[in-house]
Automatic annotation (TrEMBL):
Record has Oxidoreductase as a keyword: yes
Boundaries of every Nitrite/sulphite reductase 4Fe-4S domain copy: 82-215
Residue span, Nitrite/Sulfite reductase ferredoxin-like domain: 21-71
Naturally occurring in which organism (per UniProt): freshwater metagenome
PROSITE patterns the UniProt entry points to: NIR_SIR
GO molecular function: 4 iron, 4 sulfur cluster binding; heme binding; metal ion binding; oxidoreductase activity
Keyword list, A-Z: 4Fe-4S, Heme, Iron, Iron-sulfur, Metal-binding, Oxidoreductase
Record Pfam families: NIR_SIR, NIR_SIR_ferr
UniProt-recorded name of the protein: Unannotated protein
Length: 260
């Protein structure tokens, strides 16, 4: 529970984050969240990491809130940690998406869980299904935007990976281009970077400070370059099918839901 609680040291405020995986909340969960807000007389906000934040809590209310959230599957520890990958709608609903950004977000979360890295703190992962940045990939520690790749005469889903973006005191610092990877190699690329960051950072060090200290974006990317590899369609057809799709990847563009 403690990983999702924020205690203000200056005036003793207590806030708690309800975890919405991929930003998804069902209608019954929304109804339950509204009931919690009334019961606890709490201030409720949506966060830009696609979670629900309860503010103005007390220690007593915190226990009640945890039990209520647990009952609807939103008390899972680790909200806003590495497992909390943010993605735009992508090809699920957006007509100008190049790739299935939500599918990649799920795959990255699963890979981090499998490698024991899901609860590493201090690293934000954001994904956009095209260059339009609705997933805020440009201002994230680890960012991706979808891009068509071609390999062995076929189209394939791919991503440009960026590293080191963050929101500073007075301005946004964009992430720097690291390398392009096949969509199906992106989860392993994230796991390698998160593992290295977790092993090498010193106390209180941000992702960007760590990246600069170890030599910058190119040095970090050097350890990922073997992942920018496409087997032939005969060797591994999976590299030519996007997440959640059943047929070969086809890049087709229509009207967007947010950028036109
Ligand atoms: S236009 Fe926005 S929502 Fe659509 S794929 Fe691009 S970044 Fe995602």
């Amino acid at each position: 529970m403690q990983t999702s609680v924020i205690r203000g040291t200056a005036n003793g405020t207590i806030s708690a984050i309800a975890y919405a995986e991929l930003g998804d909340i069902t209608s019954s969960q929304f109804t339950a969240l509204a009931a919690m807000q009334r019961e606890l007389n709490a201030d409720v906000r949506l966060s830009n990491r696609q979670n629900v934040v309860f503010r103005n809590l007390t220690e007593e209310k915190l226990r009640v809130l945890y039990d209520r959230l647990d009952a609807i599957g939103m008390a899972r520890p680790g909200a806003e940690l590495a497992r909390d990958v943010v993605a735009c709608p992508g090809a699920d609903t957006c007509n100008i998406a190049v790739t299935q950004s939500r599918g990649l977000a799920k795959a990255i979360g699963d890979e981090l869980e499998a490698q024991g890295l899901a609860e590493v703190g201090g690293v934000r992962i954001n994904i956009s299904g095209c260059t339009n940045s609705c997933g805020q990939h440009h201002a994230s520690d680890i960012g991706f935007f979808g891009a068509e790749r071609r390999a062995h005469g076929q189209s394939a889903p791919g991503y440009q990976m960026l590293l080191g973006g963050y929101v500073g005191q007075e301005q946004i610092h964009f992430g720097e281009k690291a390398l392009r990877v096949p969509a199906k190699a992106a989860p392993e690329a994230v796991a390698r970077v998160v593992r290295r960051f977790a092993n090498e950072r010193v106390a209180g060090e941000t992702f960007r400070t760590w990246m600069d200290r170890v030599g910058g974006v190119d040095k970090v990317a050097d350890e990922l370059r073997d992942l920018d590899f496409f087997p032939t369609p005969e060797e591994n057809p999976n590299f030519y099918i996007d997440y959640g799709e059943t047929g070969p990847f086809v890049a087709a563009v229509g009207d967007s839901e947010c950028a036109v």
